[in-house]
Design a protein that fits this description.
By secondary structure, the protein is an alpha+beta fold. The chain has helices spanning 3-13, 15-18, 78-95, 125-141, 159-169, 175-193, 195-201, 245-248, 257-267, 273-278, 317-324, 346-361, 369-385, 402-424, 428-441, 447-458, 462-478, 484-507, 512-521; strands spanning 25-35, 59-61, 67-71, 100-101, 151-156, 206-208, 220-223, 226-228, 305-308, 328-334, 392-395, 398-401. 43% of the residues are buried. Pfam families: Glu_cys_ligase.
């Protein structure tokens, strides 16, 4: 363990600081596809009984009309976050009729791309902008790639904890700048070590053969309907035979917040020749992408982790980060575990907390060019062959076995978990770390290995396995009706969201072309640093 990590752990272990660790906040966003009784992608509109996808605070859609996204509030106890996520699932199932929520990250058999419905958000300008943005995603990357689902884990540390660390270091920056600087340092360490999360929690080693749609790939045939790689952990996070040339050169610098926001500002304001050749409108004059830049908007950048700040109405994420600094981080690389009804459980959440706190407290020098490339290569190696016996990764210019490095990291994360347990009481974080240590010792315990074992033991295709898990989870959710009070709350939230959407639509006076022009112009107030 580094001297700096030991010092910071000792500092937070002091009696007057220990309670700060129980004030971290957690939130979860879970995506999942609606499917019909034959487990084909649902082509029905977003159920009106669930409210407005534009304005509902808990239930919305991501890319496709069928790709639901459930959003929890923030809690200091991740178990409460999961309890809320469970309630959202149970309410949704009460309104779905015969439709089901697909359990894994990777979709089953998809219809032709032309039939995959893009999410609709009504006739308001902001609703149309969200739709056109998704049309742009279809134009640039295809619709199939946008039907992958995942779990996003939002995490923040209390401002008082940052203040304690800043005082200990006698750092003279403003509190806002110090907090942002330290969140960026967390992100650098996340890039160094996130391959470990893919080994431990990757759950997509196989996929339906139709997903590749004839594109070239290096996957193997498991059966007539299933492609896989024998040691893969998360094909979801691999390139899957697909590369975004526009984004290939976009690796935002994580030296500090200004350099990060400047790199994204450049991407959302620099035209890309291939997109420029397509134009913003088709031959009939219909919008098909918001602009012809490398990124239409900031969220188009596909990253494993993002610095975040809650935005005001109409405010762009880059504006919010520049004006008020980083508020929390969003972990975006987590697969949905198809063995779990919610796709994640409290054991995983407790380990994530210890892992992210380790990334926060461990020393985090800036990533030099070689290390930056090695971090990306390590991640890609683990998602494609993380369970391969003897797999070696690159650390500080030298080869090291995955197992050795994982054991060293987990030993350090275990020290952080012990401190979290002292703060919260009990031993749940330490037990969560022990559960991951067992996976390092025995790769057959990982979700990815368990998926392949199920397919081979039962002679199932990927989609047959996924369907079985989907129906099992549906039975679980439908067997546990919400209380009358909870049902009433969700019903009212749905009604209110529909009324709010109607108000937004009624308030629009500007034509859409002018609205988009103003939206694009909002970037001009963000000059590069």
């Amino acid at each position: 363990m580094s001297d700096l990590l030991s010092h910071r752990l000792a500092l937070l272990a002091e009696h007057h600081n220990l309670s700060l660790l129980s004030q971290c906040l957690h939130g979860i966003e879970r995506e999942c596809l609606r499917v019909d009784t034959d487990c084909q992608l649902a082509l029905t509109p977003h159920p009106r009984a669930l409210g407005s996808a534009l304005t509902h605070p808990k239930i919305t859609t991501d890319y496709s009309e069928a790709l639901l996204e459930f959003i929890t509030g923030t809690e200091t106890d991740p178990q409460k976050t999961l309890t809320e996520l469970d309630a959202i699932h149970r309410y949704t199932y009460s309104k779905l009729g015969d439709e089901l929520l697909w359990s894994p990250s990777m979709p089953g058999h998809l219809p032709d791309e032309s039939q995959i419905p893009i999410a609709e958000y009504g006739s308001s300008n902001i609703g149309r902008l969200k739709y056109v943005y998704r049309q742009g995603l279809a134009l640039r990357y295809g619709k199939t790639m946008q039907c992958i689902a995942g779990i996003h884990y939002n995490f923040s540390l209390p401002e008082a904890l940052w203040a304690t660390l800043q005082a200990d270091e006698s750092d003279q920056r403003s509190a806002q700048d110090y907090q942002s600087w330290r969140y960026i340092a967390l992100i650098r360490n996340f890039r160094r070590y996130s391959w470990l999360l893919m080994y431990l929690f990757g759950a997509s080693p196989a996929l339906d053969v139709s997903f590749m749609r004839g594109r070239p790939h290096q996957l193997q045939q498991l059966d007539e309907d299933t492609l896989y790689l024998p040691y893969a952990t998360s094909l979801r996070m691999s390139d899957l035979g697909y590369q975004s040339n526009a984004q290939a050169g976009l690796t935002p610098c994580y030296d500090d917040l200004p350099s990060y926001t400047s790199s994204l500002h450049k991407a959302v304001s620099t035209p890309y020749p291939d997109y420029a050749a397509l134009g913003t409108k088709d031959a009939e004059g219909n919008w098909q992408q918001l602009n012809t830049n490398v990124l239409q908007i900031e969220n188009e950048y596909y990253s494993n982790i993002r610095p975040k700040r809650v935005t005001d109405t109409g405010e762009r994420p880059l504006h919010a980060l520049r004006a008020r600094g980083i508020q929390y981080i969003e972990v975006r690389c987590l697969d949905i575990n198809p063995f779990l009804p919610l796709g994640i459980d409290v054991t995983e959440a407790r380990f994530l907390d210890a892992f992210l706190l380790f990334c926060t407290l461990q020393q985090s020098p800036c990533l030099v060019e070689g290390e930056c490339r090695a971090s990306s290569d390590n991640f890609l190696s683990v998602v494609k062959e993380g369970r391969k016996p003897g797999l070696e990764l690159r650390r500080c210019g030298e080869d090291v076995s995955l197992q050795q490095w994982a054991n060293e990291l987990i030993a350090q994360i275990g020290q952080v978990a012990e401190l979290l347990d002292r703060s919260h009481g009990g031993d749940e974080h330490s037990r969560a770390v022990a559960a991951q240590q067992a996976k390092v010792a025995d790769s057959s315990l990982t979700p990815s290995a368990r998926v392949l074992a199920e397919l081979q033991r039962n002679g199932e295709s990927f989609s047959q396995f996924a369907l079985r898990q989907t129906r099992q989870h549906a039975d679980d959710f439908r067997s546990r009706a919400l209380s009358d009070a909870d049902m009433a709350w969700f019903d009212e939230a749905a009604r209110s969201s529909l009324a709010q959407q109607a108000q937004v639509e009624a308030a629009d006076t500007q034509d859409f072309d002018s609205f988009v022009e103003d939206y694009q112009r909002s970037l001009t107030s963000l000059t590069p640093v």
